[in-house]
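Below: protein 1.
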Amino acid sequence: MTNIFLAYLLTGLIGTLSACVLFFMKPLTKKCFSASWHYYVWLVVLIIMLVPLRVDVNSFTFKDNEVVHLSTEELSESAAIAVTENNNAEQNAPLTFDGFSHALEKNLHLFAYVWLFIAAAVFVQKAVRYRFFIKNVLKNSYPINLDEAGENIEVRIMDKAESPFVIRSINPILVLPDKSLTACQMKNVLAHEIMHIKRKDILYKWLVTACKAVHWFNPFMYLIAREIDKACEISCDEAVAKSMNKNEKKSYAETIMSFAFEKGTMPLTTSIATSKKVLRNRLVAIKNSKRGSKIKGAFSALVVLLFLMVFSMVSAFAGGLLLPLYGNKAPTLYFDDEQALYGYKDNEGNVVIEPQYLKAGDFYEDAALVILPENPKVLRFIKPDGTYLFEKEFSAVNNFNSGYALAVANDNGEYSYINKKGEWATDLLFEAAENFCAGFALVQTDDKWGVVDTNFNFKVPCKYDNKDEALEKLNLN
């Protein structure tokens, strides 16, 4: 849950950044793109905010990012010492930013559950209110036959309605006020509302509602929602009016002005009615509407796709950089002073593996090296639940990387690699070798260096005097 919470914190931040870019670029984009472009580009922001992405950034760098533990004396215990010192210092430490940060991280799961509870409550409240709203509309209205609306749209008259509006995306209902409309007004109302129905604008509004529920704590989300509401009506007017002549546009604009009002529209509905603040922009869109060329349409779509790709990559790489610091943490190494043994704690500081190890290392790829007091010259791998990864023991072995761990293979001091079953992954033996990283490993035979991949195929043959030459050759390939 904590990981999900942090993921949405990050998507909210990246989504807000993308929204700021759109707001900043609006004076320019208004001159280049249509109102429909300005409406649908916000879908990109919503997707970024609702779909957490993550790329393992470490896999894009070729370097040995593991601590080499090829002998029992080199097994790192710095992390345990650091934790021990911090625990002793924190007992009587004054309140500091570091202390606050530690307390925040320790209780992050509580914030995550509060976020989830409020998000669910907000969305359920919106859904329930909308359900009651629809029931109220059906109760206080009556159906009529209106052939111009088509077979798939139910039309009803409601006495309390001040303007026409549509409810429900599936099996839509067009609600008309109980007052006489001229033939031109009815034609314009139907053209506007049917366009909303064709574009599935109420589904779009539900997506906005879901995003507002998930990001209820983000004030920018409400600005984004308001901008989408405005763009919805303006783009609908543009889409309707682009096939009209000058006189038809004038009639359509007059119909919209006849339904202008001061207060806002009903949530999760589409309506031809408009606030006086948005009226001017809608009239401008109607006046300037025209059929766009296919080339311009393709270019507009390409810009939206590029915008989505850029900010999706930013979100994914940011997730890869930041979320591993908190999300799905493996147990953390700690030292028990009384027993003088090492154990492991979870994110909240609870002991998940009791102190029982003479020496122990951090978890890499869900496996950690440990030494038991009764056998101080043997290394074994454990899983995050404290059970052994496999039964095999080693006198010298590295941590896992890319699914393999470097180990001493024989009494001659030659090296090879094991898999997570404890089996030798290859028959190849090397005079020297390094851990896998990004799917490759440096190896040495006959005093020459080369590079193998995870299938133990030589990507660079062992014919180079030093590691740098072998790596350079790998990069060239």
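Below: protein 2.
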Amino acid sequence: MSDLATTDNELGAATPPATLGVLVFVLRYEDLCAADSMALPPLTHDGAGFEIGRASEVRPPAMQGKTFLLPDRFVSRVHARVVRRDGKAFLEDAGSKLGTFVRGERIQGPVALADGDVVEMGQSLFVYRLVDEPTAVRMITRPAGFAFGPTRTLCPELMSLAIDLEHLARSDQPILLLAETGAGKEIAARYVHDKSGRAGPFVAVDCGAIPEHLVEGELFGHRRGAFSGAHEERKGRIRSAEGGTVFLDEIGNLPGSAQASLLRAIQENEVTPVGADRGQHVDVRWIAATNVDVFSEKSGFRADLRERLAGYVAMLPPLRKRREDLGLLVAHLLGRRGVERASITRPAARALFFGDLPGNVREIERTLGSASLLMGDGPIDLRHLSALRARVASEKDEPESEPPGAEVMDEERRYTKRPPREMVEAALFRAKGSQVEAARILGVTDRQLARWMDAFGIPRARKGLSGG
């Protein structure tokens, strides 16, 4: 009997639907180092459901019967319920003291959850994902995540990709990784190398960082006396990876002349050092990565080289598409810096975790790096997010850009009651100080926002930013 079937029986289902919703507990703002993220069992039939409430004592988050218990003192004893009706999962607040938030807004009644929705209860963050049945089975079989590189992943797409890469690892199939900057291309490449069983080293080459006139010598090496200053023979990066893996990072930035030489090396499994008369055989695994669309004719990338490298094309999801991994990533990044305990205020968490994260994992790492040094004995606050503030400031003169987190706000909804202070502060932060823009994010008039600011004692924006 499968794990999914076992879960179905527990929830009273007979036949699971083709698409299932999985609510993932991501992190608690009070304990960023916990790394206790987990996937909750999916609801497989109409009428199935579970409650979310506070654990009576400190313990890891856990599913007990039909209740998910959180060690969160800001969560009510019975805080919210998730129920499946008409093939959809609905989230409803159970009369909690501090409310339940979906996409940054406090819900007033049952809300149908959509793929990627961010949910907050107390100081805890969740993400809802819609997945196919095999992926749901995989997620509940490994509720704490799938090992991927130095950490784990709860992202359905990344879990599936990791399994494919593991199957390919022991072959000689070239792999082309496509991903945005900072999304983890080298981690994926190292994952393949570690699973490959190859005895040789993993050698990473940043193709965009080598001056054009040095590319061939850097890649293929050179003979002694090949040119002025060549006082000794040099192997080059490719021969240095003998028996292992060559990772060609940012291959889209490789000059055209070097592309032709690299094509020959891959085709013939040999490299010709600068100044040599004949090629030398190499046994390496080829993995390339780029954030450039090398499949476009406008890229200028050789089609024949692309076809050689694209034995398998892996598309890594950006971090904004895998927010369910934020808890594991944040704990890992803080742990690398020796931080054993850290918390974050709700406004800072929303500014950091709800945004579009254009720098992906690298942006989170950079931002947390400085924040962990500035926070002292207190929580990470908005003022500690220097890297994020710098990016927001650089976007002030770009009218086309969205404020961080705008895509997770539902602009069609409007508050009928005054929201919590931290929500107003977070909206003002996302709006870069503009009360007009903050009011748009909250779905109210700027006059209503001004009244809320006065009630909370939040200083008004200086003239010119408030919109009058």
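The chain is about 30% helix and 20% strand.
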